[in-house]
Amino acid sequence: MKSRRPGQTDLSLDVHWDYVNRVEGECVLTVLSEQLHWICELGSCLSSELVDRVHAPYQWTVRQVVEHCVDAERIFGDRMLRIAAGDKTDLPAWDENAYADARFGLGNIGHLISEFGYLRQANLVLLGRLVPSAWDQVGAVDSHPVTPRGIAWLAAAHLQHHFEIIERRCEIMPQRKPMS
Length: 180
Fold this sequence. Notes:
This protein is mostly helical.
C-alpha cells in the first residue's frame, strides 16, 4: 500500500521518527483526512480570549501556533510535490520563527482554520494522484533524505504534536475523529 507507514528510507532524522511514531494508523491518507475533522472541532472550541494569549511557558499565541500549522502544511505540500516528481534539488529548511513573527495570520481564526482545511484537502488530492513509485522517490530537505511518504506522515505528526499542545494549554478536549 503506497500510503503505508514509513520505512527506514522514508525519514532520516530521529526527531521526525519521534513525532511519527506517536501517530496511530496504517494509512496516512486516512490519518490526514481524519485530522480535517479535528481542526474544525478544535477551532470551534477556541474563544478569542484563548487564541491571543501566550500560555507560559510557550512563546507563541495559539493563533500563531495555528498559523504555524498552516504555513507548515503549505511547505509539506510543496516538498511532497517536488520530491514525488523526482526533483533532486536539496530543498531548504525553513525558519518557522520568521514566519510566526511576520504575523500573517492576524484577523479571524476561522480564516486560518479554513486555509488549513483547503491546504490539507489539496495535499490529499495530490497524494491521491501519485503513482505508487512516486511515494518512494527520495529527495533531500536540508541535506536529509526523505520521501513523499515520509513527509506525509510528518505532516500528520506535526499537526498532532501542535494540536495536543493547544488542547493542554487551553484545557479543551475537542472530538478528534468523526463519529462512526
